[in-house]
Amino acid sequence: MNLNIETVTHDNYYEVKVAGELDVYTVPELEEVLVPMRQEGTHDIYVNLENVSYMDSTGLGLFVGTLKVLNQHEKELYILGVSDRIERLFDITGLKDLMHVNKGTEVE
Q1: Could you tell me which residues come within 8 angstroms of residue 76 by beta carbon, excluding any fewer than 6 positions away?
Q2: 95 secondary structure, DSSP code
Q3: What sequence ranges are listed for the domain STAS (predicted)?
Q4: pLDDT tens digit string along 76-99?
């Protein structure tokens, strides 16, 4: 399945909207977007997963790596618009306690 990624740069954060499936085949596409943003270390990152129908551990790994780099720059990672199924992945892995995971899609 194809992955659709839209990005918007705001004054103090990046907004990344993802649609499709996040798995071992598509995560590299999102990684190409997130790695330069996180390396820059100047903005928080909000990733909207409202239109993501499936995510596996590869997606979780990308978010963990992104969080680690952002934390080094004292920036935050927000995961928005998660479905019940995807929220459960963050919950059972304990990642929900380490990053901002929200069913809502509003940027704070």
Answers
A1: 44, 45, 70, 99, 100
A2: G
A3: 3-108
A4: 999 999 999 999 999 999 999 889
